[in-house]
Amino acid sequence: MTTDTGYVTITDDCIVCDACITECPLGAITNENGKVIVETTKCVLWTCCANVINNAPCVSVCPVSAIVKG
Predict the structure, then answer these.
(1) How far is CA 36 from the centre of its chain?
(2) Any residues with CB less than 8 A from the CB of 43 and at least 6 apart, and which?
(3) What are the structural domains of the chain?
(4) Which of 14, 52, 56, 63 lies 20 to 30 angstroms, CA to CA, from 36?
(5) pLDDT tens-digit profile of 10-41?
């Protein structure tokens, strides 16, 4: 269960393929020591990706659906 945080969350299903990193237009997703994280101070899902919320760039590119709006 997730709460509405205004940004995306990477779930434990992430396979660290890094596809989402290049898709984020704000550079809010990074790989730190083999773990993909969302920098919540940079992710502005509701303003940046509001027009495509059901298919935000980072969400749509994830091969295992490990990115959810949070």
Answers:
(1) 9
(2) 6, 7, 8, 24, 26, 28, 29
(3) 8-69 (3.30.70.20)
(4) 52
(5) 999 999 999 999 988 888 999 999 999 998 88
